[in-house]
Amino acid sequence: MKRFAILVLAALSLATPSCTTASVDAGYLNLELGGDIGYARGATNVSARAPVEQGLGLGSDVGSPYGRIELVNDNGLVGTGMFASGFLYDNQGTGTLMASYGNITAGTPIRSDFKILNAKVGVFLSFDIAGLVFIRPGIAADMFLPDMTVETTQLTPRLTETIDDPGGVPLPYIQVGLDTGVVAGFIEVGYLPLKTKDLNLGSEYDVESETLDIEAMVKVRPAPHVELFAGYRLFKLSLEGRLQQDTVDIDIDLSGFMIGGGVHW
Fold first, then answer.
1. Most Cβ neighbours (<10 Å): which of 38, 95, 121, 150?
2. Cβ contacts of residue 137 below 8 Å, gap of 6+?
3. Cβ count near 186 (within 10 Å)
4. Cβ 259 vs Cβ 27: under 8 Å
5. Is the dihedral of CA 195, 83, 134, 254 positive or negative?
6. What is the pLDDT of residue 139?
7. Smallest Cα–Cα separation from 79: which of 9, 12, 178, 24?
8. How does strand 133-152 pair with strand 160-163?
9. Looking at residue 144, what is its pLDDT?
10. Which of these, 262, 215, 229, 253, lies nearest to 89 by C-alpha position?
């Protein structure tokens, strides 16, 4: 994977583009959080996971800002490019814990406050087929910045547990799409299983994870340099193991549909 990243970066730095296209889009993303979260403070295992819907009160849809920037250098048969996209999930809820969460025991009424910022920046090679279809393999830095706080509502003093450790992976992905000029679209899929033991981070970090990131979009260009889009985004993260003195067992997904518009040239 490192060799592939080096090759892509070298292609971007050495290419002399004959034509550069760019798009800047922004819109509204309707996100829903699903899955389960287990968190044990100072323990070697998680006894059970708390469902985010019933246990943490976070089952409702939430509106989120979304943005994407893409640049493509068309060099004929093989082009190069880069992109950046991101969204923010911010939701609050109340519930009763169905499993222990840190030092808060099961059956305790709680209030939860979850903020999750996802930012993805990637580079790619672009292979054009008949001037309409494109295939773009690449690698991205997919960053996951959580701020997850759970606190009791009926205990004195209140107990609070927070997970705010930033994470990120070098995510291999492939994008396949079609561009007729007036109508364009793509589906982008990235996936990476990872074991921290393979990265030699020390005994404090012993985690196995899986990251799946899917982004799909259809664009319509009703006027020169103007485009409207509709799409879908899925970000799925599984994380199990020890982080320093604590143990986590997380299996969550953020998904939803998006609409918006932007400029293209």
1. 150
2. 124, 125, 172, 173, 174, 175
3. 18
4. yes
5. positive
6. 97
7. 12
8. antiparallel
9. 86
10. 253
What is the spatial distance between Cα 12 and Cα 131, in angstroms, rounded to a whole number? 21
Q: Where are the beta strands (DSSP E) in the chain?
A: 19-40, 50-51, 62-74, 78-96, 109-129, 133-152, 160-163, 167-179, 183-195, 205-223, 226-243, 246-264
Given this model, what pLDDT does residue 8 score?
41
The pTM is what? Answer: 0.85
Q: Determine whether 200 is exposed, middle or buried from the number of CB atoms within 10 Å of its CB (0-12, 13-18, 19+).
A: exposed
Q: Which amino acid is at 91?
A: N
Q: Which residue do the tokens 């923010």 mark?
A: 88
Q: Are 219 and 245 in contact (CB under 8 A)?
A: no
Alpha carbon distance 58, 115 (integer Å):
11
221 near 264, Cβ under 8 Å? yes
How many Å apart are CA 45 and CA 248, to the nearest integer?
A: 8
H-helix or E-strand spanning residue 9: helix 2-14
Output the six-digit token pair for 56. Answer: 């943490």
3-state secondary structure of 1: coil
- How many Å apart are CA 122 and CA 135, to the nearest integer? 15
CA gap 190, 148 in Å, rounded = 25
Q: What is the pLDDT of residue 87?
A: 95
Regions of the chain short of the pLDDT cut 50: 1-17
Q: What is the spatial distance between Cα 225 and Cα 236, in angstroms, rounded to a whole number?
A: 33
